[in-house]
């Protein structure tokens, strides 16, 4: 096995689709650079939240007073299972080139992702109506809504992208171009999962414990 077959920036297609594998090298490496730049944005938002959650409480509620840890845990499970579902979609694409299987797992991923966004919006509603915790209440809440809202916006964008890819799978099949787009979407989706783990750990868990 050559070095390019072993070191690949996405799912390795060398054994099943060498043409797509070769085309993916530069494309996916470039997409990794984009993802790193996106992670810089989240790093800035995390740093802002870390400062505001300590210095920006003012007269508003503290994290433990407004966070629902059970709901956050369920949202985490939804996003984790959505990543597993997307992984099965990619396996269907790699080993079976099964259009129906890919579409089925994309549907499962999309439903789980939509459930995550719906639960997060419900959290916002409860925080505002039950606790009066609006973004204007304190610097801490402004940073919280900005961080989690940016993530929710990314997830929503991923759901739109997923719907577009489902249409392309139906119209064009699993052509090399469609495979490359699915691979990039998979990287983007898994990145959002990693970011949310950070949010759940440092925002929700640490906020409630402290």
TrEMBL record:
<feature type="transmembrane region" description="Helical">
    <location>
        <begin position="186"/>
        <end position="207"/>
    </location>
</feature>
<dbReference type="InterPro" id="IPR035973">
    <property type="entry name" value="Cyt_c_oxidase_su3-like_sf"/>
</dbReference>
<comment type="similarity">
    <text>Belongs to the cytochrome c oxidase subunit 3 family.</text>
</comment>
<feature type="transmembrane region" description="Helical">
    <location>
        <begin position="102"/>
        <end position="119"/>
    </location>
</feature>
<dbReference type="InterPro" id="IPR000298">
    <property type="entry name" value="Cyt_c_oxidase-like_su3"/>
</dbReference>
<dbReference type="InterPro" id="IPR024791">
    <property type="entry name" value="Cyt_c/ubiquinol_Oxase_su3"/>
</dbReference>
<keyword id="KW-0812">Transmembrane</keyword>
<keyword id="KW-1133">Transmembrane helix</keyword>
<feature type="transmembrane region" description="Helical">
    <location>
        <begin position="27"/>
        <end position="51"/>
    </location>
</feature>
<keyword id="KW-0560">Oxidoreductase</keyword>
<keyword id="KW-0472">Membrane</keyword>
<dbReference type="InterPro" id="IPR013833">
    <property type="entry name" value="Cyt_c_oxidase_su3_a-hlx"/>
</dbReference>
<dbReference type="GO" id="GO:0016491">
    <property type="term" value="F:oxidoreductase activity"/>
</dbReference>
<feature type="domain" description="Heme-copper oxidase subunit III family profile">
    <location>
        <begin position="1"/>
        <end position="208"/>
    </location>
</feature>
<protein>
    <submittedName>
        <fullName>Cytochrome o ubiquinol oxidase subunit 3</fullName>
        <ecNumber>1.10.3.-</ecNumber>
    </submittedName>
</protein>
<dbReference type="Pfam" id="PF00510">
    <property type="entry name" value="COX3"/>
</dbReference>
<feature type="transmembrane region" description="Helical">
    <location>
        <begin position="71"/>
        <end position="90"/>
    </location>
</feature>
<feature type="transmembrane region" description="Helical">
    <location>
        <begin position="152"/>
        <end position="174"/>
    </location>
</feature>
<keyword id="KW-1003">Cell membrane</keyword>
């Amino acid at each position: 096995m050559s070095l390019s077959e072993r070191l690949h920036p996405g799912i390795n297609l060398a054994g099943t689709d060498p043409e797509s594998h070769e085309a993916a090298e530069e494309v996916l490496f470039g997409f990794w650079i984009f993802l790193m730049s996106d992670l810089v944005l989240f790093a800035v938002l995390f740093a802002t939240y870390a400062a505001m959650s300590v210095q920006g409480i003012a007269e508003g509620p503290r994290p433990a007073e407004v966070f629902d840890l059970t709901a956050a845990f369920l949202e985490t499970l939804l996003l984790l299972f959505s990543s597993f579902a997307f992984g099965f979609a990619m396996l269907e694409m790699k080993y079976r080139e099964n259009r129906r299987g890919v579409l089925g797992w994309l549907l499962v991923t999309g439903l789980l992702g939509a459930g995550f966004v719906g639960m997060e919006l419900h959290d916002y509603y409860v925080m505002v109506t039950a606790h009066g915790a609006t973004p204007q209440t304190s610097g801490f809440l402004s940073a919280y809504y900005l961080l989690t809202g940016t993530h929710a916006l990314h997830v929503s964008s991923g759901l739109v992208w997923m719907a577009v890819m489902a249409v392309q799978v139906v119209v064009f099949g699993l052509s090399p171009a469609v495979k490359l787009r699915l691979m990039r979407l998979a990287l983007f989706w898994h990145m959002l999962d990693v970011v949310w783990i950070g949010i759940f750990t440092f925002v929700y868990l640490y906020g409630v414990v402290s």
